[in-house]
Amino acid sequence: MAKKYETVLIEKSEGITWLIMNRPDKRNAMSPQLHLDMDDALDDLATDEETEILVLTGAGEEAFCAGQDIRLYFRGTEQDPKTRAKARRASNQWRWHRLSTFPKPTIAMVNGFCFGGGFTQVSACDFAIAADEAQFGLSEVNWGILPGGIVSWNVVQMMNFRDAMYYAMTGDTFDGKKAKEIGFVNLHFPKAKLKEETIKFAKKLQEKSPAALQYTKEAVRAVRFMNEPQAADYLNAKSDALKHNDKENSRQQGMKQFLDDKSYRPGLGHFKRQKAAAK
Ligand code: ACO
What we know:
Elements: E1 8-13, E2 16-21, H1 32-45, E3 53-58, E4 63-65, H2 70-74, H3 81-100, E5 106-110, E6 113-115, H4 118-124, E7 127-131, E8 135-137, H5 151-158, H6 161-170, E9 173-175, H7 176-181, E10 187-189, H8 191-206, H9 210-223, H10 228-245, H11 250-260
Parallel strand pairs: 2-3, 3-5, 4-6, 5-7, 6-8, 7-10
Antiparallel strand pairs: 1-2, 8-9
This protein binds acetyl coenzyme *A.
């Protein structure tokens, strides 16, 4: 049974866990309560055995996330530094730390408006898939503020520098197709097909060794900030750790299917996963 929250919905189906920002009347703007709920939900789901793939999305037809809640997160905590500090800590924790280190693959399914602080959780997910009709906006400049939290850091990593500067300084919106063109999302589909295509993509990931996926995502993230000798040494150690910790023994399975059974060719598909026996 999925845990219940005031501002977050969790739905599970066939190994895919849907983690839903659930304030559709406020376009899923992030209130202090939403930050606390998300922080707790992600902590819980990280060790949830039913969760093979995590999809983050927004409730309702209109929005993924309209950014920080201007009323509750900003104005509402102006005179209450304790609540502000708690909300800010939870906000940074779930949107970046918990999501970017989540042990299973994560997908941001951007179903509609995505503004300001909402860019961080899209950047933190391993993959992002947008509706063509989604509207993205670094609207901060139009509020007289800058893309804070870590939004500016996120966009210079995700987009090319010219686009990051352009959208941060103009606040112009862009749609799902443009988001793909500038490298902010991996895929885009018409909204009517978004969920179906996201499930298709999640199922593709479910065919691979979970340990190989986890170690790969950790490695790809870590080497970005290393030099070549550091990366070579780290990747050696990381490969050994994967070999040691893979309960499905995928490396041996792959070699057996390729060399002995001749049932698979890596260039033409993937080896058949042998799931580890349930505990
Ligand atoms: N903070 C607080 N309330 C919000 C926010 C927000 N970020 N976004 C939307 N809402 C509220 C609206 O005030 C409105 O509340 P009400 O019904 O009590 O009046 C409700 O959500 C619905 O919003 P509408 O504007 O009526 O919905 P619409 O679909 O026409 O527009 C849109 C949606 C484009 C997202 C618009 O609400 C908007 O521009 N929101 C602000 C987006 C933004 O700039 N976010 C960045 C904030 S800064 C940061 O994150 C650091």
